[in-house]
Amino acid sequence: MPAAKILIGDVRTRLSEIPDGSVRTCITSPPYFGLRDYGTASWEGGDETCDHMVGRFTTTVSEKQASSRGSGTMQAKGTCPHCGAKRIDFQIGLEQTPEDYVNELVEVFREVRRVLSDDGTLWLNLGDSYAGGGGGNYNKTGVSQAGGQHITNVRNRPEWLENAGVKPKDLMGIPWRVAFALQQDGWYLRSDIIWAKPNPMPESVTDRPTKSHEYLFLLTKSPRYYYDHEAIKVPPAESTKSRGPASFGGQKGRDYKPEPTDPNYRNGNEQWGRTYEYKQGNVNRRDVWTIATKPFRGAHFAVMPEALVEPCILAGSQEGDTVLDPFTGSGTVAVVALRNGRNFVGSELNPEYANIAQHRIKDANPLFNEVEVVK
Question: How far is the CA of 330 from the CAs of 31, 232, 321, 357, in angstroms?
Fold first, then answer.
């Protein structure tokens, strides 16, 4: 029976407990830049009854303004201006600048590279961010729709935009900033896979297309690495099945009309390109994966679909290997890894999410009895 372990705490600390070269593949989706405060902060000193919330609406406002409070307030980042308490928080994603965010992820994935086998792979899912953009799974009170935590989009705060060095409405290119930084740090950047979403989140925009994709980068520790392309082959497109060879008999396939003596002859009045039968079976997976998002009834957001994770596990590991997710969240990677006979190890900063992942793993794998949670 495969084993599963979740290490609770700061990823930069807990990864150090994993032995060198013990992981075959890492599949993960870190917190996106400037999107949400996941409520993991603790406070030292000050008033225990203070909520440490700051923002635009701190006095009595009209009903219309109050309905926007959720996108205008968040917990103080350093010292609470109301009670003087100091915020202690290790979450990634609320850095002041894109450069700080990128540097934090480079540090995390440097440790991931250490625990990977020499032929290991990293599959990194990241979405982009618009400066000053809305979004986020919170309701009009500023409380998350699942879990009851204050989870706030911070990209619309003027002081944050100034610190980040971006203009309102800028597409910040966060995924590529991270990918290039990892490449500079020694990773091999092998593929930029487009996760195309047929059911994207609606956006109330009329001056650009609705965003319906994210990136999944394939990075490797070495130039030669384990990659089972056969395990993730896909059926050919209909246009591929009907396509003739590039050339035949010295002429282009679709223009070539075989003679009766030709072994490919069927009907002298038909073109070769239309009578060609595709006999090669499935084809190498392309780098655009159309996969619908899936809702999850739990106190967690941005859940990767299992269909996005499974090809990564099948291509990047064998049965009995260990799969890593340093940002375990609701446990999608763990569920798919265990179902496919792989071991799982992950880390998670928020104990509530680790508890959700633990129960989800057991629910998804009835024969799996135990998930080791290490605090």
Answer: 13, 25, 21, 5
Number of domains in the chain: 2
Mean pLDDT of 90-105: 85
Quick one: what percent of the chain has pLDDT higher than 70?
Answer: 69
pTM above 0.85, yes or no: no
203 in the same domain as 255: no
Show the domain range for 245: 238-275
Q: Is the pLDDT of residue 270 over 60?
A: no
Those residues with Cβ within 8 angstroms of residue 57's Cβ, 6 or more apart along the chain or in another chain? 65, 66, 68, 69, 72, 73
Query: What's the distance, CA 40 to chain centroid?
Result: 20
Cβ-Cβ contacts under 8 Å for 220 (sequence gap 6 or more): 120, 121, 122, 187, 188, 190
Distance, in Å, from the CA atom of 80 to the CA atom of 116, rounded to the nearest integer, reads 41
What the block records as the tokens of 303 is 């859940």
Residue 6, beta-bridge partner list? 346, 373
The answer to the question of residue 113 being in a domain is yes
Give the tens place of pLDDT for each residue, 17-47.
Answer: 999 999 999 999 999 887 666 666 667 788 8
Same-domain pairing of 220 and 342: yes
Domain-embedded: residue 45:
no
Task: Please state, in angstroms and rounded to a whole number, the distance separating the CA atoms of residues 52 and 82.
Answer: 7
Task: Residue 334: give its domain's CATH number.
Answer: 3.40.50.150
251 in a structural domain: yes
